[in-house]
Amino acid sequence: MQFQTLASLLFATASVFSQSAKAQDTSCPPIGWFSMAYYAQIHNATYDSTFDMDFYSQQQMPWVYSLYKPFGMKGYTINTLERDAPWSVVTFFYFDTAEQFDAALAAHEDEILARVPLFSSEYPSRFVGDVISTTF
Ligand SMILES: *[C@@H]1O[C@H](CO)[C@@H](O)[C@H](O)[C@H]1NC(C)=O
């Protein structure tokens, strides 16, 4: 009898958890959209990637933001990774929609990429995705 009670309690608990997990899937739509630019870093006996963070954070990204803001860019975060990571810098560009970013990129991509050699030995690559929540 006691065992049955415990088992049914566990079963009830498990179904509560699976219900709340399901509820979360549908009740947590994206709150925004991002494009993530990442810069490879290679360090070996014959090659050393370089990245000038002062230039990037004080000149390049404020300039890019001024170009993209009229298209709906909300802000950005610049993040550095440790030397052993495959990427040195990861920057998130926040927008409401992918279409806003596409329009910004179409208008300014060439002039932005032309300035990459001023601060980085590597050109950036990109992923995009949804922002589900932020907590700071
Ligand atoms: C170092 O990295 C460069 C750039 O990827 C590569 O061309 C070179 O072969 C590497 N050298 C060694 C010793 O791994």
Automatic annotation (TrEMBL):
Transmembrane segments: none annotated. Residues 1-23 form the signal peptide. InterPro entries: Dimeric_a/b-barrel. Keywords: Signal. Gene3D superfamilies: 3.30.70.100. This is ABM domain-containing protein. It comes from Trichoderma harzianum CBS 226.95.
